[in-house]
Design brief:
alpha+beta; three-stranded mixed sheet; 5 helices
Length: about 120
């Protein structure tokens, strides 16, 4: 397994977020991004997870709710990557993938776009 500190991985996630175009980040609403060590034991190879209500499904009822949550998992990412550059690339793909879910884009479309 590739070695990397939590701080280094968090910085990669921050850099990936910084590369999201400003016109998209301005549209993101009520969402928080977290780095976690490991996903649920039910899905140990999961790289990221979006939990919340996508922007496309929010209606008049959507008020006073907790923020949507995007989790990026360090352990599975480091286990699947053979180099630091692979971690950089996979982290960016995962961050974009989970943010896309916030915008209501499903897995099928993301795979077609190369963010599977």
């Amino acid at each position: 397994m590739l070695e990397m500190t939590r701080e280094e991985f968090e910085e990669l996630v921050a850099q990936a977020l910084d590369r999201i175009p400003p016109e998209l980040t301005r549209l993101m609403d009520n969402v928080a991004v977290f780095v976690e060590d490991e996903p649920s034991p039910d899905d140990p190879e999961l790289l990221g997870l979006y939990e919340g209500t996508p922007l496309t499904e929010r209606g008049e009822w959507y008020a006073g709710v907790l923020p949507d949550r995007i989790s990026i998992y360090m352990g599975p990412t480091l286990r699947m990557c053979a180099s630091h550059q692979e971690v950089v690339e996979e982290t960016e793909i995962t961050v974009v993938h989970e943010i896309a879910h916030h915008f209501g884009i499903d897995d099928e479309r993301l795979h077609a776009l190369g963010y599977g």
